[in-house]
Amino acid sequence: MAEQGRETEFAEFAESRADWLRRVAYLLCSDWHRADDLVQETLTKLYVHWPRMRRVDNPDGYARTVLVNTFLAEQRSPWQRWRARQPERTGTESAAPPADPESALDLRRALAALPPRQRATLVLRYYHDLTVEQTADALGCSSGNVKSQTSRGLQTLRRLLGTRSITPAGRTL
Amino acid sequence: MSDQIDELTRELSDLAASPAPVSGVDVAMAARNGRVRLRRRRATALGAVAVVAAVAAAVTQLPSVGDRSPAPAGTHVSAPPASATDPLVVNASFGWLPAGFAVNYLPARGGIRQRADGRIPQGGLMGPIVWLTTYPKGTTPPLGDRWYSGGPRKYRIDAPPVDGRPAYWVGMTPTSSQAPGGSGDWDLRWQTADGRWAELEASYMPGSSAQQTLHRIAEGVVVARKEIPLPFWVSALPKGFAFEQVDLAQGPQAMRGTRVPWAARIFFKVDGMSIGTTIQPDQPESAGSKPGSTDSTVRGAAQTCVREQGLQLCTSAMQGVDAYRAVGGPKAWLKHFTPLGTDRDKWTTHVLG
Between 3.40.910.10, 3.30.420.130, 1.10.10.60, 1.10.1740.10, what CATH number should domain A1-89 receive? Predict the structure, then answer.
């Protein structure tokens, strides 16, 4: 009976959250295909740890933490370090361009240039709107570390995006 | 500084919401891989227990570990197919659906779950999804959250009757003003003609008429056992092969990462190993699309494919060719399949011969 519950509950949760997790994964890794792989691995881990998933107060937060840590763990593997040096795959992404392609592309490239931990910190803080403490909890580090990663990440983004056209409001990062 | 942060937040949201290629995420595969990991973990744990017990036995001169019968690992045991020949059987079926919806038959414990997927609206990111579930006779579905303790509270809101029988919404707010066209996921439950409860779970249903649309879908649901025709049949199932699971995906997301309009997958178990075989329309543009068999690698797993009757049949196993030892290899295994083409009128409910 418990096994049956796991199957049904997991399928419902995974189907309803897969797209959201995929978009978070895309912010982290800047590649839709890698995002798919990250979410696939995250869902497999969630299935294995489903009893724990049932007990947490915030299942979405737990799933996001598993995703972020899967991403960071992947960055540490020799295979991933090799892969990161390869040219970006082309020709297989057939989606329509975003509404503001230049802006989105700039940010995507700038994010991709950040060290993985800085990238994860910025995504958690400014996309998910997590506090410093919540971000530290998700990344398994101290609040001070989150603050320094945030500061360095923002500094790097400003530098990378510095040549982008000034918006009508006169704002740049 | 605050403006800059606001802009970063907005741009991150824009980037995350940018149009994406069709997803390659496979929830069923995640569950299958998860089950394999759990089995390995349990086997390792039992092995460790056996080693510890053996050491303890040697030290304390207790009877040998062989006298102890460890509890069997919680292995996956699928329900046998409801039909001797058609493994894809449902207890209820969608009737009317809005234009553009396609029904997917997905494996779940205790049977098949059905999910109707609609088209992604112009300029939108998510297409509507409607799940159909029926509860066993005499079972009253609980109102509480079904996923986890401590989850968000759910509310019951009266709904207009469905075919004159009681119905209600289950949602996240105490009023139905937002249901189901607003934010959040909403369920419509109603009592069917034979007394059992049925449920539609809706996500991303657009427009102000979403409630009426769901009511109309509910009124079209037919509660009766139905065998779903499949595009193949399997002959002379080798000894030791046992049916494990089948699904049929249809619509734009049939096989994520590809553009096929539908795909059927069937899994058999042999010697504790699982063999999966996918049957889908052959894609003219696919690499090496020519009659005969080909070998390739998908997500790290070797697969063997043949093309016949306008269909592509591909088989793979996590354990590789070892899984096919009893049948003489993957190519020999595929010879047990008879593809029936893309014309659905020629599909059959006599699947396992």
Answer: 1.10.1740.10
User: Which of the four CATH numbers 2.60.40.1080, 1.10.10.10, 3.90.950.10, 3.50.50.60 does domain A98-173 have?
Assistant: 1.10.10.10
Question: Which of A47, A32, A119, A38 is closest to A73 using CA atoms?
Answer: A38
Inter-chain CB proximity A169 and B3 less than 8 Å: yes
Domains and CATH numbers, chain B: 27-67 (no CATH), 90-224 (2.60.120), 232-346 (3.30.200.100)
Structure tokens at B62: 């207790």
Whether a cis peptide bond, with omega within 30° of 0, leads into B180 is: yes
Which residues of A fall within a CB distance of 8 Å from B151?
A: 59
Identity at A78, one-letter amino acid code: P
Q: Determine which of B7, B10, B27, B40 to mutate to test the interface with A (most A C-beta atoms within 10 Å).
A: B27
Q: Cα(A20)–Cα(B185) distance, rounded to whole angstroms?
A: 14
Of B34, B150, B256, the CB nearest to A44: B34
Q: Do A19 and B11 touch (CB under 8 A)?
A: no
DSSP for A38-76, written as a single string: HHHHHHHHHHHTHHHHHH-S-HHHHHHHHHHHHHHHHHH
Segments making up each domain of chain A, as ranges? 1-89, 98-173
pLDDT by position in tens, chain B (length 353): 567 788 888 888 888 887 777 788 888 889 888 888 888 776 665 555 454 444 343 333 322 222 222 222 222 233 334 445 899 999 999 999 999 899 989 876 567 888 888 887 776 555 787 889 888 888 888 775 443 334 446 678 889 999 999 999 887 666 555 455 444 456 899 999 999 999 998 776 766 778 889 999 999 999 999 999 999 999 988 888 999 888 898 876 565 556 788 999 898 989 888 888 999 999 765 544 455 566 665 444 578 999 999 999 999 887 788 889 999 999 999 999 999 999 999 999 999 97
- Give residue for tokens 């982008």: A164
